Amino acid sequence: MVRFVSILSLLGCAAALVIAHGDMDMDTDMRPFASVAVSPTASIVPVAHEPKHLHGVPILQSPSLTPAERLYWESYNTTTYFTTQAGNRGALRFHIITLVLIAFVLYPVSLALSAASSKWYLPLLLVNLCICISSVVALSVFKSSFPEDEWYAHNIYGTTSGLLLVLMAVHFFAAVLSVPVSSESKKDYHAVDTIPLDDLESTPVIVNSARGSPSPSSNRDTLFSLSSDTTTNNNNNQDNGNINSNKREHIDGEEETDSTSNHNTLRDEDYNDDEVAFIEAPPLSARDIPVFRVLFANTKYQVLAAQLSYAANVMHHILMYPLFMYIFVDLVIGFAVGNLLGKGIRIFNLLAHWIKGGVFFTLGVVSLARYCGFGAKYGWAWNNICFTSQLSQERSSNLLFRFAPAGTFTMESIESFLIFFYGSTNIFLEHLAGNGGAWTAKDLQHVSIAFMFIGTGLCGLLTEYKLNHWRFEHARKHSHTDVVAATPGYSPNPFPAFTIFWTGILMSQHAQSSQFSTTIHTQWGYLLSYGSFFRLLTFLILFLVPNTNCTASKPFTELITSFCLLCGGLVFMESTDQSIEAMEYRGFTPMFTFNLSVGFVSLLMAWEMILFIWKDRLIKTRKTSL
């Protein structure tokens, strides 16, 4: 028995020696006899994992490149307008800084001041115009100092920048001419009587005109009535006989009430931010606006303003938000030209990613704005709102509601129309890169997505038509007034979210020329899908717990939806072929762009919410000071 055990021990030692010499990956401490053999790889330093291309090493250091790939990357040129030292660098830096300042700070702040009817709106708009002029001049200085070459021949950035300056100037002068120089805002704005809450329980706000002025049928303790030189608000609504007609409209700055009226002083604690979201700020007197007092007092200006004020007011409001979007269009065009992106046939890949990604990014901005109260007077902030038949003449003058159905135009109907329109225009755009050649499988794959947009957009419009009566009845069932149009603040129309969901799913499965590009497409595809999922949860929450008052619902799911749309749209724009190549050349990983996008979007959302909170505080401050 002892001999048998000894034989097994000897065999075990022999086997251990064979394994120790045969396993070249084993640690040296586990191979006591390794020093006996002379290895040709003795100079290799042992590491757990050797770095590969996807782990942060520039692509030229990758050992897996084919000869054709190495030839391409060795000729890759990183020189751009931003990296070269040619031209007036100071002028270029000044142009970049001022344009970014206008896009992210000055013009957004001016929009907040405009919504609050602040006296500083026109002065800041003048500052915007002056900085825009200096920015375009700096761009011209840089272009004149840059040596003539063919870096980016026939680019349109100079044209778009000049057009931006023209639009800024037109918008500013229209804003100046639209100021009612003879208005007396402090006489036109009045607090109205307090209505017992018991008489208005579960009653949605009743808006007497498309302008969104609240009537005495609101379910708040203290209500407000706004009027101007051109607007009257005659409310005699009855609520089961409890609301009498002791509240009259303010005509020509004079208030008509009976002897039983009990006026209250308007105080900050009488209302909250949700009410401010749909109540328009009181009109501003021209004499209160700094810098422009002398101009407004001029007789010649007053004559000119009297002739052009209506047209100027229309132009001012038409340009306000489109100009904000155009500033960012000009910004991204400058970024593309400065980095030499989209040259030649690559322009189609750039446009495809930036237009679609920009659409989702814009949708994220609008979604967050709706959460903060944007569009509340139209029922777009997830709030219940009704429109009475009074002031039919003023209602018909508003194009948005002149042809509106009983269920009004919801944000879902607008989204469905835009999806249908975009899909219709995108059918042949997908084949532009083919330059008239035969349709390829890739072209057909992209066109099928355009067909999906057409189909889902059309289904969304038809669903809005079918839900029209449901929205009307769902919103007015607690109202006892003469309601002609109403909306609960949402429409359970799944097709806009459905379109975004399947766009994300399809593109997340869209194989690319490199694993790097495929991973980034998967990132933004999943982000869009997650956003649409939380949008459906918003519908579910509002359906189970309906909002029966005028204040915004503020569903928490919309914050996540906004983040997913913003971040998904931004990563979508970053997934162009040339952007992918730039990151691969420098050895960045797919998480590089993802991490930067998450951080940027978080800061952007915080800044947008700050602006809305500040705007609401400005409105409160103006109301309490009157």
From TrEMBL:
<protein>
    <recommendedName>
        <fullName>YCR061W-like protein</fullName>
    </recommendedName>
</protein>
<keyword id="KW-0472">Membrane</keyword>
<feature type="transmembrane region" description="Helical">
    <location>
        <begin position="347"/>
        <end position="369"/>
    </location>
</feature>
<dbReference type="Pfam" id="PF10348">
    <property type="entry name" value="DUF2427"/>
</dbReference>
<feature type="region of interest" description="Disordered">
    <location>
        <begin position="206"/>
        <end position="268"/>
    </location>
</feature>
<feature type="signal peptide">
    <location>
        <begin position="1"/>
        <end position="20"/>
    </location>
</feature>
<feature type="compositionally biased region" description="Low complexity">
    <location>
        <begin position="227"/>
        <end position="245"/>
    </location>
</feature>
<dbReference type="InterPro" id="IPR018825">
    <property type="entry name" value="DUF2427"/>
</dbReference>
<feature type="transmembrane region" description="Helical">
    <location>
        <begin position="593"/>
        <end position="614"/>
    </location>
</feature>
<feature type="transmembrane region" description="Helical">
    <location>
        <begin position="524"/>
        <end position="544"/>
    </location>
</feature>
<feature type="transmembrane region" description="Helical">
    <location>
        <begin position="318"/>
        <end position="341"/>
    </location>
</feature>
<feature type="transmembrane region" description="Helical">
    <location>
        <begin position="120"/>
        <end position="142"/>
    </location>
</feature>
<keyword id="KW-1133">Transmembrane helix</keyword>
<feature type="compositionally biased region" description="Polar residues">
    <location>
        <begin position="210"/>
        <end position="226"/>
    </location>
</feature>
<feature type="transmembrane region" description="Helical">
    <location>
        <begin position="444"/>
        <end position="462"/>
    </location>
</feature>
<feature type="transmembrane region" description="Helical">
    <location>
        <begin position="92"/>
        <end position="113"/>
    </location>
</feature>
<keyword id="KW-0812">Transmembrane</keyword>
<feature type="domain" description="DUF2427">
    <location>
        <begin position="75"/>
        <end position="177"/>
    </location>
</feature>
<dbReference type="Pfam" id="PF10355">
    <property type="entry name" value="Ytp1"/>
</dbReference>
<feature type="domain" description="Protein YTP1-like C-terminal">
    <location>
        <begin position="327"/>
        <end position="616"/>
    </location>
</feature>
<feature type="transmembrane region" description="Helical">
    <location>
        <begin position="162"/>
        <end position="181"/>
    </location>
</feature>
<feature type="transmembrane region" description="Helical">
    <location>
        <begin position="556"/>
        <end position="573"/>
    </location>
</feature>
<feature type="transmembrane region" description="Helical">
    <location>
        <begin position="483"/>
        <end position="504"/>
    </location>
</feature>
<dbReference type="InterPro" id="IPR018827">
    <property type="entry name" value="YTP1_C"/>
</dbReference>
<keyword id="KW-0732">Signal</keyword>
